[in-house]
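Worked problem 6 (solution included).
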Amino acid sequence: MPNFSAKSHACYKNSCIFAPVDNNIYLITYIHMNWTIIIVETVALIIAFTAMILIPLVKNPVWWIHDYPQDIQEEYFKTHERVPSAFFSKTVLIKKGFALLLALAVMLALMKLAGAYDFWSAFALSYGLWTVIDWYDCFILDWVLFANMKSVRLPGTEHMDAAYHQKRYHFVQSLWGMLIGLIPCLIGAALYAELFC
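Solution. The predicted structure is:
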């Protein structure tokens, strides 16, 4: 008689389970992630991300100055004290580093809730969610809201309509975001596979 436990474990790693039906017959059941949960997770992430970006942006636009196009930053610094805004400045690295750690923790939880069953399913889920947020940030928040909301314009740059409506800058930043997103998603998938699979 086949060793069910060993066969079950090996097949689970490839997204299926052998269930004994008779002495010599086994039923194969394929494991799938829960798409309803994935859709709910996506909507929840969009709402949370929007709040995380817009609330501090409306209250104090300078908080996100490192994400503004360079020409807008320079116009602002003509009449205001210069603050760290370069990508590799300590302040920006701390903000980005915290965001990556938060993303890693959130992704681990979302992988578990959606029923990821191995490294690749966990990575596909997390990077898929990351990409949705990345594109939402570019095409909705940056191209539409950022360009048209006067309340998020830095003091002294309110007249720079063309600069606020430029699309190429945000699209390039979005591509960088997709590249950077590989880091927490790969690490998260590896941790998930080690802890839960």
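Discussion: The chain has seven helices and two strands.
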